[in-house]
Amino acid sequence: MTSSSVNPLFTTMVVVVVNTLNPMNLRYITLLMLLFSLSVVAQKSIHNLWTAALQEHVDDDGNVNYKSWKEDTTYLDNYIQTLEDNPPTKVWSKNDSLAYFINSYNAVTVKLILDNYPLKSIKNLITPWGLKRFTLDGKKISLNDIEHEILRKMNEPRIHFAINCASASCPKLINVAFESHTMETQLEEVTRDFINDPERNKISEKKIQLSRIFQWFDADFGNKKERIAFIRKYANQSFGENPKVSFLTYDWLLND
Length: 256
What we know:
9 helices, mainly alpha, three-stranded mixed sheet
């Protein structure tokens, strides 16, 4: 969300309406506008920190240079602290919250790897997704909590191509932060990129071999017919009405 997303006509209409209100209602509207403005500022400053860190250590193909990142985690540490200090509020939009929690998941995952680097796979760690490593509203939560209790409940299946588990078969860790005002474009891009990546999905006219993400989280994509329709929407390769579906082996080696 940025201040440029606020329509001037909307602002003019608010002023007109405010002028007709009594002093008590005027104070209430003013407070709401102040909260909205603070939300805009907080969102912008928070995610700029994450983009700065990503630009330094992640290439355009999503490969992460954990070795160099471990030498200086200042941006990452400051970003996670800023996230914890600025949790979502009731005035945030759905896209504000998506940006916050997608970026939180990815940043906490990177921090987990760096704290244990060098290692070959996130699965070398004991219950990596169950560790309580992030503070939200004063409560310690895990990666599982962010993914299953928050993001998956937002009714947005494309989040599965935005969050990264630090592994070769995971969706790429893009080297810019997810932002509220670009959320729809970013979700479309990462979904299309993932589905058409032959290392992650193999699609032909009669057969499609899918990432196990579509198996593990099948309920998020609907029934079998709806899941096929979802893939067809984004796939560059056309395929028949009843393709043979199988799932590829998942590569848990580090995404470096």
